Task: inverse folding
């Protein structure tokens, strides 16, 4: 028996008078068992790929140094152009003041270093010791978004500005051991030689060109994080495929029903778990028949398609999600997407099946069917007792 067969027999009506074709609910609830489902969103014509540009785009990176050496990485389905160059701290400070260096991309986490950590970086530079390279991503408007090294570059430029970003108070050095005589000093208190050493210190920058494909950007984001905490797939995906679609996922993650179902113990905004679940629903709903392992590539394809969605299409997805989760909650309540009564953990494959199924029904079509559907789910999801 499958849940979908049960659903059809319980309702004896298909949503919007169409034939309902949905994945089987059995096979140990394995996403690999998902079968073809092509009742998708309004059709979206595939766009032909634009011709690749031969030269590094003439944005900020090119303006900073016309002769910057570039590297092009051509991998299957990936395209990334990277320019590497060294620039003094003062040049990056000037770019930030002109609004051409963005230290706060919408997809990035906030500044988390304390003042002692930031002070030690200033000390490192004054001692002439090496600092890890910084990655930036050139946007279509020529602006540079920080990719890796946000804590470092924010610390340095904030010290030059004189304000510590976490509390907006005067930035004075603290916690220094080697140059302990500088504790308590702001940038303006340093000697002229020390200020010059700080501003002229060359930082190694890698500039990811704006014509790099988002899938290549995703791979780079996954590999270059140097802050000691690797990005998970959705964190990297949000940055690589940032668009109004990703912003929609952020908004839907705060849906009150989803928050009830997930519970505070499971929700982790920084890990992006809920946003990946929502993206997974949209991908399964519209392109289930195209699913192939690994799941990460399947979700990248969905994120890539989402970049070109119109405002109207984004609204359609919002309505679709809200209808699906509302219908599921009306039947299973806070126990939605759980394998059995003894488990409080959301099962992703249950999420796929229930969300894709009940997104296609109007609430009135489910009236009076709740108990029967709950019983059918118990029979399918609970292993038979020997």
Result:
């Amino acid at each position: 028996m499958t849940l979908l067969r049960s659903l059809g027999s319980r309702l004896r009506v298909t949503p919007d008078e169409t034939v309902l074709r949905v994945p089987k609910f059995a096979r140990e609830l394995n996403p690999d068992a998902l079968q073809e489902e092509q009742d998708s969103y309004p059709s979206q014509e595939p766009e032909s790929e634009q011709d690749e540009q031969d030269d590094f785009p003439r944005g900020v990176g090119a303006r900073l140094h016309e002769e910057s050496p570039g590297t092009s990485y051509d991998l299957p389905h990936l395209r990334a152009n990277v320019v590497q160059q060294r620039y003094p701290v003062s040049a990056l400070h000037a770019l930030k003041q002109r609004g051409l260096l963005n230290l706060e991309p919408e997809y990035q986490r906030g500044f988390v270093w304390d003042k002692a950590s930031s002070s030690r970086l200033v000390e490192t530079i004054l001692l002439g010791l090496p600092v890890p390279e910084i990655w930036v991503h050139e946007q279509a408007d020529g602006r540079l978004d920080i990719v890796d090294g946000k804590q470092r570059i924010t610390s340095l430029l904030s010290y030059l500005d004189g304000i510590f970003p976490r509390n907006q108070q005067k930035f004075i050095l603290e916690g220094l051991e080697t140059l302990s005589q500088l504790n308590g000093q702001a940038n303006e208190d340093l000697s002229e030689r020390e200020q010059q050493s700080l501003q002229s210190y060359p930082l190694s920058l890698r500039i990811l060109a704006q014509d790099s494909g988002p899938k290549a950007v995703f791979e780079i984001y996954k590999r270059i994080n140097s802050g000691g905490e690797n990005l998970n797939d959705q964190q990297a995906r949000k940055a690589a495929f940032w668009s109004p679609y990703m912003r929609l996922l952020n908004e839907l993650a705060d849906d009150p029903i989803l928050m009830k179902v997930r519970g505070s113990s499971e929700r982790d905004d920084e890990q992006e778990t809920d946003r990946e679940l929502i993206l997974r629903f949209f991908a399964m709903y519209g392109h289930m028949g195209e699913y192939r392992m690994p799941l990460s590539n399947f979700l990248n394809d969905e994120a890539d398609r989402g970049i070109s969605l119109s405002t109207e299409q984004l609204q359609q997805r919002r309505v679709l999600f809200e209808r699906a989760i509302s219908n599921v909650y009306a039947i299973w309540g806070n126990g939605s997407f759980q394998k059995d009564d003894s488990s409080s953990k959301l099962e992703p494959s249950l999420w796929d099946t229930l969300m894709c199924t009940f997104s296609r029904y109007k609430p009135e079509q489910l009236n009076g069917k709740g108990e029967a559907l709950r019983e059918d789910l118990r029979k399918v999801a609970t292993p038979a007792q020997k």
Residues 323 and 329 are 10 Å apart (CA to CA). Residues 1-70, 72-76 have pLDDT under 50 and may be disordered.
